[in-house]
Design brief:
The structure holds 2 protein chains of 2 kinds. Chain A is α+β, with helices and mostly antiparallel strands. Chain A has one domain. Helix content of chain A is 44%, strand content 24%. In chain A, β1 and β2 form a beta hairpin. Chain A is elongated. Chain B has one domain. Chain B contains 9 helices and 2 strands, in the order αααααααββαα. Chain B has a two-stranded antiparallel sheet. Classes of the chains: A alpha+beta, B mainly alpha. Chains A and B meet through α3 of A and α4 of B.
């Protein structure tokens, strides 16, 4: 009479073979773990962001003035006054936000600009600091904040030797990556075996300078008045 | 559950008889990659110990609920969670070290040592045994990393934990802190450990 209770064995079998039911532990654990990870991120996220910000601020004098002058400045017990600003650039109808640090000497003179930008690298996002002189004419320094490039090849972009090439480059020309021996003023030597990583850094820099030159010049001028 | 090793046996086995690096050859990626300084090696060992301890405890607690064909998924889920927590903790409280170790902290997820312990011990034995197994294996792993890192840092930079131990006249063997140094050191130490444990067998 009651059709559903006809074959309890088969019913039990079907119940046991249900994928979702079999995986209840996985689903339950995934939920629990997901919630606890969210809690960890909520608790530690701000601390991590602050660590990054402090690192950025610490790097500013060295990036703008070079190591020697930066050490002299610390020895003289002076420091830059650093004001974080956000600059909006509108391109093709899309708004892009740049995080820029304005560095001023203690007497109020503009020391330069440091901007934090990121872009796609070979493996993951590359996050870097680009330092420009007050007139936006030359690059004064480059620092890689975060990268996950191939260890031993692409991650050489963090080394002082490679980063050093950028200091003193004019912002007038687009930078170009070359393999083995940069000759022209706007050429950058690629890291051996990591042309894509090198290209990524250079294209991030080129794009940033194109976008920011005018806004930063304006910002520097209005502040002076 | 007959003939399963006792907690004490598990602990002792992890240190030398079943040392993760020298006897099981597991977790080689960090052993080679982050052993160019003692500080990095010890941080890595502590991170692995944390993940192994947590993963073993959780796995052991749920061992009776595990389905044989879904166990690896559960292990990976557990390990990935604790690795992410370790990674965030390092980034929050040891920022420079977390940058030095870079991708190798997230890569603990694929460290076979941990999934091996979940499979071999934690999914079959009670919590206390699983914890002492994790402690023994972590200690063994830490000692192995420290032995490779010690040799590499001393010969490569003349320093130990950042303090100078060899006279400044020592010509730093730069190769020791570079990747080839890791292979050379590990190979020689592995040979030495094998020779030492093989002696008694004759």
């Amino acid at each position: 009479m009651v059709e559903t209770d006809k074959d309890p064995a088969e019913k039990k079998n079907r119940f046991q073979n249900n994928y979702i039911l079999q995986a209840w532990l996985c689903i339950f654990l995934a939920l629990i773990f997901g919630i606890s990870l969210a809690a960890v991120q909520a608790a530690l996220g701000p601390v991590i962001i602050e660590n990054k910000l402090n690192e950025t601020k610490e790097k500013v004098p060295e990036l703008l003035l070079g190591t020697e002058a930066a050490e002299k400045m610390v020895a003289a017990n002076q420091a830059f006054k650093i004001t974080p600003r956000s600059i909006v650039v509108e391109k093709n109808g899309i708004q892009k936000f740049y995080s820029v640090f304005e560095a001023r000497f203690e007497d109020g003179r503009l020391g330069g600009w440091v901007t934090k930008v990121d872009g796609q690298g070979y493996a993951d996002k590359i996050e870097l600091l680009l330092a420009l002189d007050p007139a936006i004419e030359t690059i004064t320094g480059l620092f890689i904040l975060d990268q996950k490039e191939t260890p031993g090849l692409g991650n050489k972009i963090i080394e002082t030797k490679w980063r050093g090439q950028f200091a003193g480059k004019s912002t007038g020309d687009q930078l170009k990556v070359v393999k083995g021996g940069a000759k022209a003023a706007n050429e950058i030597d690629a890291v051996t075996g990591a042309t894509i990583s090198s290209d990524s850094v250079v294209s991030i820099i080129n794009k940033t300078i194109t976008d920011l030159r005018q806004p930063l010049m304006d910002a520097g001028r209005t502040k002076k008045e | 559950m007959a003939d399963q090793p006792t907690p004490l046996e598990r602990f002792i086995r992890g240190i030398l008889p079943e040392n993760p690096v020298y006897r099981q050859l597991l977790g080689m990626c960090p052993t080679l990659a982050v052993t160019n300084s003692m500080k990095a090696a010890i941080t890595m060992a502590v991170a692995v110990a944390f993940v192994l301890l947590c993963a073993n405890t959780v796995t052991s607690l749920i061992r009776n609920l595990l389905k044989p064909h879904l166990r690896i998924v559960v292990f990976t889920l557990t390990i990935a969670t604790f690795v992410t927590i370790a990674d965030r903790l390092l980034a929050a409280y040891m920022y420079q070290m977390s940058k030095t170790l870079g991708p190798y902290i997230p890569l603990i997820i694929v460290n076979c040592l941990i999934i091996c312990r979940c499979e071999v011990c934690a999914s079959k034995q009670p919590v206390f045994t699983a914890i002492s197994d994790a402690a023994g294996q972590s200690l063994g792993y830490g000692l192995a990393l420290a032995s490779v890192a010690g040799v590499r840092e001393i010969l490569g930079t003349g320093m130990f934990f950042g303090f100078r131990v060899l006279p400044t006249a020592w010509p730093d063997w730069a190769v020791m802190v570079l990747p080839p140094g890791a292979f050379i050191t590990l190979g020689l130490l592995l040979g030495a450990v094998n020779w030492y444990s093989g002696r008694g067998a004759k």
